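Fold it.
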Amino acid sequence: MLTTRRRFLAGVSTGLGGLVVGCGTTQTADNPGGRGVGAASAGGSGGTTTGGGSGSTSATDSGLLLDSGGCIATNSDAQGPFYRLGTPVRSNLDLYGEQGDRLQLSGVVRDGSCQALANAVVEIWAADSDGVYDSDSDEQRYYGQVATDGDGRYSFTTISPGRYLNGSTFRPAHIHMKVWLGDTNLLITQIYFAGDPYLDVDPLAEPSRTIVLAQSSGLVQGVFDVNTNA
């Protein structure tokens, strides 16, 4: 049975507390740099993100504020060909014992006034560490969705995705994201990782959606805050 957002949200009254809180065209498994991305050098912090659509952030918890008091909206990106309906409701996607760095991705979803957006649905999907998407199995490996909690927070545990060929060059490692509020799609985007050698040659990657990863407690951690126009 497909998990629709309406059915999903019908059982969610407190965001993550009500859950198990839990594009390119050519892929290849024999991928020279494809074992995902590791942690960045020791200057990066899991609490630092360049997400949110501006390229850099201030050291505040309230997002990127304009003089008008609004947030700078996170830039969109291509959905790509591997989006699937019926995304499983789960926050832990590292379920298969496959090779790859364990990655925790978290953040806060905000509305156009920089207020936390509760009960927004955040979907992510990504390739495995060899750069291959699970485009047809019932397991939907490395696909998941959660609802934000009362403070707009979301969190996933997955593995660092690998790179794959797109024409004559590799796409940088990335994670796809969709954000919904009810039946309204607020954002489709992709998240990239600092230090990836293919960022500069990729036509879609940009600094505002490139996050720094930090090693902590046996996994790499990254923060990607989302500012919407809701």
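Residues 13-69 have pLDDT under 50 and may be disordered.
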